[in-house]
Amino acid sequence: MSRVPLPYSQKILDLFRNPKNLGKMEDATVSAVAGNPACGDMITFYLKINDQDVIEKASFESYGCAANIATSSIVTEKIKGIKLEDAWKISWESIAEEVGGLPAVKFHCGVLAVGALRRAIRVYYKNKQASPEWLPAELTFEEKQALEEEELARVLSKKMKTSEET
Predict the structure, then answer these.
(1) Which parts of 67-142 are beta strand (E)?
(2) In sequence order, what are the beta bridge partners of 60?
(3) From 47, 72, 94, 160, which residue has the greatest number of CB atoms within 10 Å?
(4) What residues does each domain of the chain span?
(5) What is the CATH code of the structural domain delimited by 10-160?
(6) For 53-103, what is each residue's pLDDT tens digit?
(7) Is 65 a catalytic residue?
(8) Beta bridge partners of 32
(9) Which of 28, 109, 111, 146 is catalytic?
(10) Could you say which of 39, 139, 153, 156 is catalytic?
(11) The whole model's pTM is what?
(12) What is the maximum span of the chain, computed from C-alpha positions, in angstroms?
C-alpha cells in the first residue's frame, strides 16, 4: 500500500525539524493541556506571565504530527511579550496562514494550538479569581474543540478496554 505524503509547506517542515520554544517550563505561571491521545495530537502550553498580564515566556510540549508541532511553535513565538488580551485574539486561521497553510485534514492542529493557549489563559484568570471584561464567559470554538477531542479519546479508550476484557 502506497501512502501519499501530506502537502506540508516548507515552513511547517522547518518548524517540525527545528521547533521554537519546545520543552517544559519549570517556572511557568500556568500550563494547560489540549489534545486527543487517540489521534496522537497532544499539546501542553506553559506560560510565564508577569504582574501586568504580559506573557514573558512561552513553551510547549507536543506529541503529534508536523502540523501540531509547527502550529504550537508559531503560537509560542507570536505570544511572547504581548498582553493576555492580545494573545486571546489570535485565531487558528491566522496560525494556519502563518505556517504557510494547513492541509484540510490538519486544520484541527491550528484549532488545538489556539485552544490550548486559550485554556491556559482561562486557567490563569481562574487561579487569580479574576475575569477581565474581554474574556468571554462561554467557551470559544477552539476551547470546545479541545474538550471534544479529549472526550472522544476517553470514549475510545473506554471502548478499547471493554473489548480487551471480553
Answers:
(1) none
(2) 22, 45
(3) 72
(4) 10-160
(5) 3.90.1010.10
(6) 999 999 999 988 899 999 999 999 999 999 999 999 999 999 999 999 999
(7) no
(8) 45
(9) 109
(10) 39
(11) 0.85
(12) 56
